[in-house]
Amino acid sequence: MPARDRQQAGGGKPGALDWRMILPVFAVVSLVAAGMSSVMPVLPFLVRDMGGSPTVIGIVIAVEALSQFCSAPLLGQLADRFGRKRILLASQILAAASLLLLAGAPNIAVVVIARLLFGLSAGNLAAAAAYVTEHSDARDRRQAIGIVMGGVGLGGIVGAGLSGQLSGASLTTPIHAALLSTLLAAVLTFVLLRDSRPAPHLDTRTGTGAAGGKISLRALLDTPAVRLLIGVMLCHFFAYGMVISQLPVFLADTFVWNGHPFGPKELSYLMMADGVVNVLVQIFVLGWLSRHFTERALIVLIFAVAGAGFLAAGLATTIPVLAFAVVCVGAADALAKPTYLAALSVHVPAQRQGVVMGSVQALIAVADAASPVVGGFILGYALYGVWIGVALAVALAGAVVTLARLRVDKAGYLTKPGAL
Questions:
Q1: Which long-range contacts (CB under 8 A, 24 or more apart) does 413-420 make?
Q2: 110 Cβ neighbours under 8 A, 6+ residues apart
Q3: Alpha-carbon gap, residue 143 to 8, rounded angstroms
């Protein structure tokens, strides 16, 4: 895509973030993330208390991801057609219903159904990202998405902290807190967000713009750089998912925290630390890196930092080493999603950001679905070294492809790959 098209893709004034648009989305995303992170520290232990093995825990997580894979592209298209606000509200109401079901789940089968419904609400983050890309210039889009993703980190801190405190009462108490947080997010969405609708020159039924060119995921994948970028992105999220989904099981089996086994409260502390890292990196580090690194260099840096974190997590026997692992993995994750989403968003006009963000989220969901099952299978045989080794190999493959095939233009944007 020519540089001038990239600069116009956001539809906004170059170099100026529309804070009146971004801050309400930041607040909504923070509340949604707080609800998600309230559940995650207790979910593995809730399934384990019902008799679930590491593989079953992985399947529960995978069901949610597969549900996202099915729903995210459709919700993205609906957001393009009917507006971001309506889809955000609908997905938040569905998420609240799933949490209510999870809180009263008597067995693993109901837990699976609840997480499947929660996955169907995946339009939250896709619609929020599309909302932000519509109101930011391409040169500032990575920072704008990073700020909103910082809301995920802030919500992660609050939600994980609440989970740690409330899990002492019962494993379902944090789920009730997540329900309240999600309902509050729906109220703020209704009150604060403007109803963002597609521009008049876009035919939402066909995806055809004023120029007459059809804009779809298939058309987007016709771009070699985009195909490679998506492949590299999936390497990152598969490796990340393998480690992060099974880390509670690994630590519960191998790690002693201040003289007692690793449990829900300790996991909530790690999630709080990850949230702090996420917020700090996205607010204070991402902007600086965006000014000094090309997209390719930043992606390689993400793989390097993530790999260091994976290795440290696999070797962790003390709290300082575990803290180093959390900082590295958290920093890499904080950089990853804004970088990949911003890199992909400049290849399409603002009016079709919903379907693109939804489709990308669906592809990420594929990695999120496969990685916990693979990780759970490996840990089911207590093959801890193999578990970390596979994650490191996938991350290394992504870094090698980035260095060998991805190219950038003079403006630092990804362009056509080098010849084989």
A1: 413/1, 413/3, 413/6, 413/295, 413/343, 413/346, 414/225, 414/229, 414/295, 414/296, 414/343, 415/225, 416/224, 416/225, 417/224, 417/225, 417/228
A2: 101, 102, 104
A3: 16
Residue 368 has a pLDDT of 81
- Residue 197's pLDDT is what? 53
CB distance 323 to 282 below 8 Å:
no
Q: Measure the CA angle with vertex 158, ends 152 and 159; round to 5°.
A: 80
pLDDT in tens, 60-88: 988 888 888 888 778 777 877 888 888 88
Burial class, 291, CB count within 10 angstroms (exposed 0-12 / middle 13-18 / buried 19+): exposed
* DSSP code string of 181-242: HHHHHHHHHHHH-------TT-BTTTTB-TT--B--HHHHHTSHHHHHHHHHHHHHHHHHHH
pLDDT higher at 73 or 59: 59
Q: CA nearest 167: which of 265, 99, 249, 247? A: 265
- What digits encode the pLDDT tens for the residues 134-174? 777 767 777 788 888 788 878 888 998 899 889 888 999 99
Encode pLDDT of 302-347 as tens digits. Answer: 999 999 999 999 999 898 999 999 999 999 999 998 899 888 777 6
Q: Say if residue 24 is exposed, middle or buried (CB neighbours under 10 Å; 0-12, 13-18, 19+).
A: middle
| CA distance linking residue 14 with residue 29, whole number of Å | 25
Does residue 278 contact residue 149 with C-beta atoms inside 8 Å? Answer: yes
Query: Structure tokens of 274?
Result: 């990850």
* CA distance linking residue 354 with residue 81, whole number of Å: 9
* Whether 78 contacts 130, CB under 8 Å: no
pTM: 0.71
